[in-house]
């Protein structure tokens, strides 16, 4: 087992021990998908909205080239110690910048361009995040949106998001029925 794999196991264990909703973590299957999509897209710079305990960020960062970089945004500063320790254990702490605060307020200060974006945060704000990312996403870049088939109180917001991207001529999209649904969106150009 590599140090990175051990680090990911540590993040998963810490998430289960120290958080009230460990199911929010992307986990090994989704982590492998994010890692693979980062490699396939040859992404050099990525952005993530919704870090939680840092598992998905580590998976993306592990797939970036040595000079690649990930900006990740998280509103909950109470998770910072777990996030940073997990990244240290995975050996990716130097490839990631953690931005603590409201993503909608932070996004305008980030310039990009980004080759890949992962959205896994406040479901009611998915359209806001998507529109803020589009101008700083490289042509041919990917947006991966998590939980797009999640029900409950977010059903209306996620349906509006799904309709929004389906009707956006700037992109092509496919929804994978993995966990609570993942949209893979490619910016044309």
Topology:
Blueprint: H1 3-18, H2 27-40, E1 45-49, H3 55-63, E2 69-74, H4 80-90, E3 96-100, H5 103-106, E4 114-119, H6 126-133, E5 137-146, H7 155-166, E6 171-176, E7 182-187
Parallel strand pairs: 1-2, 1-4, 2-3, 4-5
Antiparallel strand pairs: 5-7, 6-7
Q: What does this 3D model show about the protein?
A:
This protein has helices at 3-18, 27-40, 55-63, 80-90, 103-106, 126-133, 155-166, and strands at residues 45-49, 69-74, 96-100, 114-119, 137-146, 171-176, 182-187. It has seven helices and seven strands; from the N terminus they run ααβαβαβαβαβαββ. Strand 1 (45-49), helix 3 (55-63) and strand 2 (69-74) form a beta-alpha-beta unit. The chain has 189 residues and is an alpha/beta fold. The longest helix is centred in the first third of the chain and has 16 residues, at 3-18. Strands 3-2-1-4-5-7-6 form a seven-stranded mixed beta sheet, sandwiched between helices. Helix 1 (3-18) packs antiparallel against helix 4 (80-90). The termini are far apart. Helices cover 39% and strands 23% of the residues. The protein has one domain: Rossmann fold (3-Layer(aba) Sandwich).
């Amino acid at each position: 087992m590599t140090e990175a794999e051990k680090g990911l196991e540590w993040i998963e264990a810490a998430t289960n021990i120290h958080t009230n909703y460990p199911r929010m973590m992307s986990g090994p299957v989704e982590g492998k998908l994010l890692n693979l999509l980062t490699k396939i897209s040859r992404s050099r710079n990525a952005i993530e909205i919704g870090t939680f305990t840092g598992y998905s960020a580590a998976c993306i960062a592990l797939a970036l080239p040595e000079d690649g970089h990930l900006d990740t945004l998280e509103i909950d500063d109470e998770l910072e110690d777990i996030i940073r320790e997990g990244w240290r254990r995975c050996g990716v702490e130097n490839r990631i910048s953690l931005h603590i605060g409201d993503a909608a307020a932070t996004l305008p200060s980030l310039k990009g361009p980004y080759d890949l974006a992962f959205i896994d945060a406040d479901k009611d704000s998915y359209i806001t995040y998507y529109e803020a990312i589009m101008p700083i996403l490289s042509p041919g870049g990917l947006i991966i949106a998590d939980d797009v088939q999640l029900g409950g109180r977010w059903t209306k917001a996620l349906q509006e998001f799904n309709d929004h991207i389906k009707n956006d001529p700037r992109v092509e999209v496919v929804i994978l029925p993995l966990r609570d649904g993942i949209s893979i969106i490619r910016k044309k150009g």
